[in-house]
Design a protein that fits this description.
The complex is a heterodimer of chains A (166) and B (775). Chain A is α+β, with helices and mostly antiparallel strands and 166 residues long. In chain A, 25% of the residues lie in helices and 23% in strands. Chain A has helices at 6-14, 19-27, 34-44, 100-104, 151-158; strands at 51-57, 60-64, 71-75, 80-83, 93-97, 120-124, 131-135, 147-149. The chains are: A alpha+beta (166), B alpha+beta (775). The interface between A and B is large, with 78 and 95 residues. β8 of chain A pairs antiparallel with β8 (284-295) of chain B, so a sheet runs across the interface.
Chain lengths: 166, 775
């Protein structure tokens, strides 16, 4: 079992960790402490006090609300998307690239999809404008609910106490 | 797992030490596994625990023998697909047909050759045609576990002291199987009956000698005979080297130890996956989806039957459930129907192929065997493209759909790695490795020939959560990606290279961008008669980005005829030298003669068309998807993208908000402060143009009620709705549609031949298919 420092995990999150260590992380058995260190690093990167439980995007976390201990999804900027069991995208802003003109803004001619077959759906945080996700489905496709974690079992796996309101 | 009861009746078996028939023995193994949850009821790995060194010694000898045999045998092949790209694999199986260990290479065949062995076991090959020392069996039947007909497997039973102790299989990807379209992954044919030679576990050799009737008949069935025979020799040599190795191991370690090992190592593999899932993933559900365009309603797609001339879309939704006990379930409820094209897949292709990808993240060990499958539940609904309920389906390019659905799995499971902080394992997906340059005719040596360029083995990879994807590096189906040497391809194909360059703007944008693809411009040269066609995605992109990253660029087609290049070469005029940097600028056309005819469009699937010497063909190999919001990309990395010709100026501005200067030598310098300021503005612009999702849903819902979508989109949904009332129910619930809303395929007017009346392979007399998934 490998072990890494908090500084190394912090550098990993920043994308500045040296390749030798990244390679070690890839090739060696996974370090069980990673989750704990990762949460500490993420917590230091946000200004809110709610406890981060799980990362679902570079700027999107499942947190335990400091206010009422509810488990919610929260943007780094502080915007709250609601209970973690619900699809956060339904509370986001959406921009759909569904025409040739809109596709030309992102790819050269001939290198973007034909929008009668496929559209791009960009999901933004209503408060800070971060793009949390881009979907590329057909028209009509339901909004994807990407992940529904089983937090109770997860904390059992981690052998850590689970938050009260899971 | 469906257990077929005693196909042999009560006939005593003669091949195994325990006196059971092969079928009874396999069924007993399956029953013990089902009953206990441990492979062959091996709750304890007694041999491994008692003699760990001995156990590891046997593993090391077998694994080294497999890898060594592959490396030696591939030098026999002349086909660049095998010799350059390494499209071959050797695998050892226990007598029950479960994989013990495999070589490097296209390890999808862990399962495909195993399926063929299981088929022989289940269908009484033991008594007819018989299984004896020195026999060879050949299989490439897509209804018997194979992915596509061009993967030819040679299977050799291994005997020790008069008893069967193991099986070894070797597979190579041959260049041609004599399908309607030339090349190993062709289109044009729409049914099995045009998909090339298919051999069903046929005994093709006795006493270690290939049978003459097999050699004569099979050569006549394919275009590329020299490659065919040398590939055959490659497989036989590898299998025989491995047989010799195993018999030496038995002599050294003892028959009993090796026999125990052959079962314990499978259970060891099962536990390995469970342990890794618990170490890296998050329990719960992850959902993904993938699509692939099948644009067959086009004048350049010539298929023999009217019912195949339609535009359609492959739909592959997947719900991944990571269970509390560390096993997992992959459920493809909602997939669209199989079709009249060559992109259908059978369940073994799916369930076995997934390990090609998972060995690159979830199980990155040399111990890949059938154990991982025993820890995985697959649900592939009957009638879908990945479990056709009809024996007529074609499969020559099954990978076209498979890679896209697997790429989405990679993206999905990466969400769980990301959540736990294993960012180094995150992969936004992969490119759909294409274009497949294929064709045939009479080549530069005056011989009937066919080609399939495997430059696809080096497409762009998906971005990671800590770094960019790799440029022109790999393919999802072969972790040992290699684009091959130009000189070798020019020997194998009557096509000169006018250039091979990185393909600008093909990596999906993101905090970390996808790896870029590349492009090669080929000029037909010295052929007598020649045809070519295109095979790839164009109207759709099958590879989404992850967590704010964009998908990679889609494909397009460029071909030119009557180019005047012979004259331009003679006159010393400029030539198109291989970079189509911005397709809208039509750079190649500036270097062609006045009478050239050019096709430059998004029709990336075509069928065989004639090419003269001097004609051009662009082979554009795709890039990978991106990760994270592009506005998070480091300034220096955007600058590097510009200076390395990875990114067009226009999109550095639009996507990344780059503000830069360019000096006299064309070197870009970004202004960090102005770029950051512009990025802040872009975030505000996003907020201004974005609509609340629930408001947008109202407008989209109105379109659904009005049935306002292209025919191909509606046909895709209608096909999935018919096969899956659950998917229809969830769709209607999500969009809050009226209870009586429906979309029957019958109302669309699209061809429905094959949609309602089918016949499975299992309906043939005396045929018992091997079923290893939930359906």
């Amino acid at each position: 079992m490998s072990n890494y420092t908090k500084k190394q995990v912090s550098d990993l999150v920043k994308g500045t960790l040296d390749w030798e260590t990244v390679h070690l992380m890839l090739s060696m058995p996974k370090d069980k402490d990673r989750y704990k260190l990762y949460m500490e690093v993420l917590q230091e990167n946000v200004s809110y006090d709610d406890k981060i439980l799980l990362a679902v995007g570079p700027h999107l976390n499942i947190v335990e609300s400091a206010k009422d201990q509810e488990i919610i999804i929260k943007c780094d900027c502080g915007h709250e998307f609601g209970h973690y069991s619900k699809n956060w995208k339904l509370g986001a802003l959406i921009y759909v690239r569904d025409s040739v003109e809109k596709m030309k803004e992102v790819y050269p001619e001939l290198m973007a999809p034909d929008t009668s077959w496929q559209v791009y759906r960009e999901y933004y945080c209503p408060s800070c404008g971060i793009m949390h996700d881009v979907e590329a489905p057909t028209p009509w496709y339901p909004v994807m609910h990407d992940i529904e974690p089983d937090l109770k079992t997860f904390f059992e796996w981690l052998e850590m106490p689970a938050p009260a309101k899971i | 797992m469906t257990i077929m009861k005693n196909a042999l009746g009560n006939t005593p078996g003669l091949l195994l030490k325990n006196g059971l028939t092969l079928d009874d023995h396999r069924n007993a193994v399956l029953e013990r596994t089902t009953k206990t949850g441990f492979y062959n009821a091996l709750e304890k790995l007694e041999f491994k625990e008692k003699d760990p060194i001995g156990y590891e010694r046997i593993f090391s000898k077998i694994r080294a023998g497999l890898v060594n045999s592959r490396e030696v045998a591939k030098k026999i092949a002349a086909s660049p697909i095998v010799e350059q790209e390494g499209e071959l694999c050797f695998t050892l199986y226990n007598v029950a047909g479960d994989c013990v260990a495999t070589s490097t290479g296209i390890i999808i065949h862990v399962g495909t050759m195993g399926a063929a062995i299981k088929y022989m076991i289940q269908n009484n090959w033991e008594t007819n045609p018989g299984i004896a020392d020195g026999d060879m069996f050949t299989n490439n039947d897509c209804q018997t576990g194979n992915v596509h007909p061009c993967d030819i497997a040679t299977i050799v039973p291994i005997f020790y002291d008069g008893l069967l102790v193991a099986w070894v299989g070797g597979v190579t990807h041959v260049i041609d199987t004599g399908a309607v379209g030339p090349g190993s992954m062709s289109n044009g044919q729409i049914q099995r009956f045009g998909d090339g030679l298919q051999i069903t576990c046929r005994k093709t050799g006795v006493n270690d000698t290939p049978l003459r009737d097999w050699l004569h008949e099979s050569q006549r069935a394919v275009r590329t005979t020299k490659y065919w025979i040398l590939d055959e020799k490659t497989r036989i040599a590898g299998c025989h080297m491995i047989r010799k190795m195993l018999l030496e191991v038995i002599e050294e370690e003892g028959a009993e130890a090796v026999d125990k090992f052959m079962y314990e190592v499978v259970e060891d593999g099962r536990r390995g996956l469970v342990s890794r899932i618990k170490a890296m993933c998050i329990p719960g559900k992850v959902r993904t989806v993938a699509f692939v365009d099948v644009p067959y309603n086009h004048p350049d797609v010539h298929v023999p039957s009217t019912f195949a001339r339609m535009d359609s879309i492959m739909h592959a939704p997947c719900e991944i459930t990571v269970n509390g006990d560390g096993t997992w379930r992959l459920d493809f409820e909602g997939c669209s129907r199989w079709g009249w094209h060559t992109y259908n897949a059978n369940p073994t292709a799916f369930t076995s192929g997934i390990w090609v990808m998972m060995t690159q993240s979830l199980v990155p060990t040399e111990r890949i065997n059938d154990g991982a499958r025993y820890a995985t539940t697959f649900r592939l609904p009957k009638g879908t493209w990945t479990n056709p309920d009809d024996r007529r389906t074609a499969h020559a390019d099954a990978w076209h759909f498979l890679v896209s659905s697997w790429s989405s799995l990679w993206r999905g499971i990466s969400r769980t790695y990301f959540g736990r902080g294993y960012l180094e394992e995150v992969n936004a997906g992969n490119s759909n490795p294409c274009n497949w340059l294929q064709g045939g005719g009479v080549n530069q040596d005056g011989e009937v020939h066919a080609v399939n360029s495997f430059e696809t083995a080096a497409c762009g990879t998906g971005a990671c959560a800590v770094k960019d994807g790799l440029n022109h590096a790999a393919a999802i189906w072969n972790p040992e990606g290699d684009m091959g040497d130009i000189e070798i391809w020019e020997l194998a194909e009557p096509l000169l290279y006018l250039g091979r360059r990185i393909k600008t703007n093909t990596g999906g944008y993101g905090k970390y961008r996808g790896g870029l693809g590349y492009e090669t411009l080929r000029m037909v040269w010295n052929s007598a008669d020649w045809t070519m066609f295109f095979m790839g995605n164009g109207y759709m992109n099958s590879d989404w980005g992850l967590m704010g990253g964009y998908p990679s660029a889609t494909g397009y087609r460029f071909e030119a005829h009557n180019t005047g290049l012979k004259e331009r070469i003679a006159e010393g005029k400029s030539l198109p030298l291989g970079q189509d940097r911005d397709p809208s600028l039509c750079e190649y056309e500036k270097h062609l003669g006045p009478n050239a005819t050019v096709k430059r469009d998004k029709q990336c699937i075509t069928t065989e068309d004639m090419y003269d010497n001097g004609d051009l063909y662009l082979n554009y190999l795709r890039g990978g998807p991106g990760f994270g919001d592009p506005l998070d990309r480091e300034i220096k990395d955007i600058e590097e993208d510009l200076n390395q010709n990875f990114l067009l100026e226009e999109f550095a501005v639009k996507i990344y908000g780059a503000v830069f200067t360019k000096d006299d030598e064309g070197v870009y310098s970004l202004d960090a402060a102005k770029t950051k300021a512009r990025q802040a503005e872009i975030r505000k612009e996003r907020i201004a143009r974005g609509a609340p999702v629930r408001e947008w849903m109202e407008t989209e819902r109105a379109k659904i009620i009005d049935k306002d979508a292209s025919l191909q989109v509606q046909q895709m949904f209608a096909s999935s709705f018919y096969l899956s009332p659950k998917f229809l129910g969830e769709f209607k619930e999500f969009w809050d549609l009226p209870a009586d809303w429906e979309l029957p395929e019958e109302e669309l007017g699209t061809p429905m031949y094959g949609a309602r009346h089918t016949m499975e392979i299992g309906e043939l007399p005396d045929v018992h298919p091997v079923i290893m998934t939930e359906e």
